[in-house]
Amino acid sequence: MAQRFLQLADVAEELNISPRQALTLLQNGEIRGIQVGPKRIWRVEAAELEAYIQRMYVETEARMAERVAQPEEH
């Protein structure tokens, strides 16, 4: 059975970013997560991470399409 919740380090590794960058994404609400236990440790549901990745694909494609539609002025 696949793991439902990922640790912050797992999120960082999956996105190939630092744990600090992953924490910032959580704190900014870009990735939805929960805090559990008395130490309020972050956990991210695997489906939420996948949803974030899919949103980033859509946003990146939109930025690239906009860039192509607006040629640079010299």
Observed structural traits:
single chain; Multidrug-efflux Transporter Regulator, Chain: A, Domain 2; 3 helices; 74 residues; alpha+beta; three-stranded antiparallel sheet
Q: Any overview of this molecule?
A:
The N and C termini lie far apart (56 Å). The chain has 74 residues and is an alpha+beta fold. 55% of the residues lie in helices and 15% in strands. Helix 1 packs across helix 2 (19-27). The protein is built from 3 helices and 3 strands. The mean pLDDT is 93. It has one domain (5-69): Multidrug-efflux Transporter Regulator, Chain: A, Domain 2 (Orthogonal Bundle). It comes from Spongisporangium articulatum.
Task: Report the CATH C-level class.
Answer: Mainly Alpha
Mean pLDDT: 93
> Low-confidence parts, pLDDT < 50 over ≥5 residues?
none
Q: State the strand order across the main sheet.
A: 1-3-2
Name the shape in a single word. Answer: elongated
What is the C-alpha radius of gyration, as a whole number of Å?
A: 16 Å
**What do we call the CATH topology?**
Multidrug-efflux Transporter Regulator, Chain: A, Domain 2
Pfam families: HTH_17
Protein name: Helix-turn-helix domain-containing protein
Domain Helix-turn-helix: 6-55
